TrEMBL record:
Listed SMART domains: HTH_XRE (SM00530)
Coiled coil (residue ranges): none
Top-level lineage group: Bacteria
InterPro entries reported for this sequence: Cro/C1-type_HTH, Lambda_DNA-bd_dom_sf, TransReg_Diox_bact_type
Name used for this protein in its record: XRE family transcriptional regulator
Source taxonomy: Bacteria, Pseudomonadati, Pseudomonadota, Alphaproteobacteria, Sphingomonadales
Gene3D superfamilies (UniProt xref): lambda repressor-like DNA-binding domains
Annotated PANTHER family: HTH-TYPE TRANSCRIPTIONAL REGULATOR, HTH-TYPE TRANSCRIPTIONAL REGULATOR SUTR
Length: 81
């Protein structure tokens, strides 16, 4: 089976994860810039993650989850993954 790029994420997994990250961020009243800073990720890259335009590494998912004070498992569950 050929690998899918973020642009061919036909089942929307990247978008779902991005939506879950954004929802968790909104829930605690954190700006995208603050989340990016706390995660050690460039703000523009964080925006692309939230829009499902980037295939985020497990390490960066862990950094984002830590910055949001949630577990990776709960973040994935929120995304339906």
């Amino acid at each position: 089976m050929p690998r899918q790029s973020p642009r061919t994420d036909t089942d929307g997994k990247l978008r779902k994860l991005g939506d879950a990250i954004r929802a968790a961020r909104y829930e605690i009243g954190m700006s995208q810039e603050a989340l990016a800073d706390a995660s050690g990720i460039d703000r523009s890259h964080m925006g692309k993650i939230e829009r499902g335009e980037r295939n985020v590494s497990v390490l960066n998912v862990a950094r984002v989850a830590d910055a949001l004070n949630v577990s990776i498992a709960s973040l994935m569950a929120s995304a339906g993954l």
